Amino acid sequence: MPKSNAKFEVPKELSDKVLQLVEAAKNTGKIRKGINESTKAVEKGESKLLVIASDVQPEEIVMHLGPLCDEKKIPYVYVPSKMEIGRAAGIDVPCAAVCVVEAGTGKELLKEVADSISKLTK
Fold this sequence. Notes:
This protein has 122 residues and is of the alpha+beta class. It contains five helices and four strands. It has one domain: CATH 3.30.1330.30. Helix 1 (12-28) runs antiparallel to helix 5 (107-120). The model has no long low-confidence stretch (mean pLDDT 91).
């Protein structure tokens, strides 16, 4: 198993909910896929939630995302693999980061996930 670069431990149940949220947002809302698009969405304050893969190598590629989200007061969470994010985002390749811009039908799930993340990071 590759080394994880996650700043905090995320329970499997929360990780699964996050991926469900990404799928719901992909189908009925709006998401940004990839590190560059996600970074831009966070910088502009458009992002509601940032999802980062914890198996990204080299980890320096995603190291700026956590502090940027903290600065912009945007919740972020780590999931175990790039493949899971890619699958949830509806693409056939691994994806290091994805952000939810509009949750669509996943609004309640977004609120629940954001609350869980705030409890984890305290």
